[in-house]
Amino acid sequence: MPRSLVIWSSLLLALVLAIMPLPNFMQIGRPLWVLLVFTFWFLEAPKQVGLELAWCFGLAQDVLYGATLGEHGIIFVLALTFISLMRSQFQLAPMWRQSLALVIIYATVLLLQLWLNVLIERRPQSLTLLLPALISSLLWPWVRLGLSSLARWRMV
Length: 156
Fold this sequence. Notes:
There is one protein chain. This protein is an all-alpha fold. The protein has one domain (1-154). The chain is built from eight helices and no strands. The radius of gyration is 15 Å and the shape is globular. The N and C termini lie close together (9 Å). The model has no long low-confidence stretch (mean pLDDT 91).
C-alpha cells in the first residue's frame, strides 16, 4: 500500500472521528483528532504532509462543523508551525515530554481560537475549551504508536 494512501486514509479517519456524534457530556472534551494525526505525519513525512494540506483539512473541518471559514485552518497551521520550530527536539524527547509540549501548543492555539470567536462576536466559551488540548495530549502516545505501527506495516 503506498504511503500516501496510508496518510490520506488516516487523515480521513481522523476527520470522521472529529465529526462523529458523542453524548453531550463528552462533547466538551472531544479530542483534536485531525490535529493529532497531522502532528504525527508532519513529523514523520514532512515532504508529504505540509502546512498547505493542513490548511485544506482545516477548511474541510470548518465546513463540517459549520464554523467560520478558515478558523480551523489557522489553528492547524499555527500548531504545526510551532511544532516545526522545535521538530528536532520534539522527535528526540521522551513521550511524556512530547505530550507536555503538545498540551502547551494545543492549548495556545485553542486560546487563539477563543480570541478569534470573541473578535467575530460569537458567544465566547469558557476555559473548558482547553479540555480537548489536555485529552489530545494524553492520547498522543497511543496515536503515535498506532500510526507508527501502520507506517512500518506499510513498508513491509
